[in-house]
Amino acid sequence: xSRSSFDRAGLALMFSTILxxxxxxxxxxxxVSYIGPFDFVALRYVAGSLVLFALAIATRRPLAMPPWKLxxxxxxxxxxxFQGFVQTALVTGGVGKVSxxxxxxxxxxxxxxxxxxxxxxxxxxxxxxxxxxVGLVCFVEPWNGLGDIRPVALGLGSGLSWGVGTVLSKRMxxxxxxxxxxxxxxxxxxxxxxMAPLAFLVPQMPAQWGWQLWTGMVYIVLxxxxxxxxxxxxxxxxxxxxxxxxxxxxxxxxxxxxxWALLSERPTPAELGGMVLxxxxxxxxxxxxxxxxxx
Length: 295
Known about the structure:
Elements: H1 3-31, H2 37-58, H3 68-92, H4 95-102, H5 105-116, H6 123-140, H7 150-176, H8 180-201, H9 211-238, H10 241-244, H11 247-263, H12 269-287
Helix pairs in contact: 1-9, 1-11, 2-3, 2-8, 2-9, 3-4, 3-7, 3-8, 4-7, 4-11, 5-7, 6-12
Pfam families: EamA
Organism: Achromobacter veterisilvae
Keywords: Membrane, Transmembrane, Transmembrane helix
């Protein structure tokens, strides 16, 4: 098969991954009426990890846990923190607003990589962060009163947690080079189990296990979590990193379009302007050269 055929296949896989992950935002919004956010996160990631462990066994991958302290920290931030903030935000916030705030993750990665990995930001990183900051102001519209800012704050918290987990994951791969599938399964399992005490202790609505919740959980666990992760592995193998990284633009855009079409979430002109600026900032950051390490 020619290189162009591989490239076309890789791009097709990337667009499929974007559609699958964007669809998961609609599914997550729809299930909030049937299950509490902490119950959802615990069930999603414990079940998703079991699927990945089954795949690891089927493909004869190593099952030993990577260094447990770092794996636990990543599970607490990248899985429990990220998804806990997201699902709580979706109780009252719209898909477009929350997904865009979650995908501010690249900006948090820059800041935490500076502090933890000594990767000094470049001028281009600063430009991207500046565009996103202006976009966030437009998105929140403080001149109209802050209103219900809780979903925006929780969405930003999810992006921050995801950013910390990403930086810690980078440290894990640099120092220990674990098997990707095994590492993902362990950090998902630990993150899901970490949410279990909150699921028991924090008052939530009782789960209503009708066809709506079952359908949503099957999509989220099997398609968005397990199949989406496997699709992404193929994308990383086939598509240059600079192009694959642009999926961070595609998922919130497609999620917003889905929410507009399926949930009647129509953004205001100021919100649209803010979205454009934030996405422009993400694009600038994704195209920037790797940050140099201090020292």
